[in-house]
Amino acid sequence: MGTLNTILHQELRLSIISFLLGVESAEFKKLLEVTKASKGNLSVQLTKLQQAGYVEIVKSFKGNYPHTDCKITSEGRQAFESYLAELKKLLKI
């Protein structure tokens, strides 16, 4: 029997990836709103997803304000699909 992807099998990271699957990209502020996470926790989890190659993060400025945009990568999409398939197999659905 396989094992679940430990990067995705964490509530906040799974929430982030699930949301990003349905949009072209999302601002950090939108992810804060959707996940109801703290800024620090969201930042840490996004970094973990980025290091795994699942999320692309682009930091820039809009006027004088920092702007962070997040986008799921094709590797992230594939990892989620594999995670879901493994979960279904474990649950026998």
CATH architecture: Orthogonal Bundle
The end-to-end span amounts to: 15 Å
What would the principal axes of the Cα set say about the shape?
elongated
What is the H/E order? HEHHEEH
Q: Structurally, how many domains make up the residues?
A: 1
- Low-confidence regions: none
Tell me the structural class: alpha+beta
Radius of gyration: 14 Å
Report the biggest beta sheet as strand number plus sense, adding barrel if it closes.
Answer: 3 strands, antiparallel
The number of helices is 4
Name the average pLDDT: 95
CATH topology (level 3) name: Arc Repressor Mutant, subunit A
Please indicate the percent range of residues in DSSP E strands (runs of 2 or more). Answer: 15-25%
Helix proportion of residues, in percent? Answer: 40-55%
Question: What's a quick, concise take on this entry?
Answer:
The protein has 93 residues and is of the alpha+beta class.
Can you characterise this structure?
It is a single chain. A hairpin with a 2-residue loop joins strand 2 and strand 3. The two termini are 15 Å apart. The protein has a three-stranded antiparallel β-sheet with strand order 1-3-2. The model has no long low-confidence stretch (mean pLDDT 95). By secondary structure, the protein is of the alpha+beta class. It has a single domain (11-88), classed as Arc Repressor Mutant, subunit A (Orthogonal Bundle). It has helices at 11-21, 28-35, 39-51, 74-91; strands at 26-27, 55-62, 65-72.
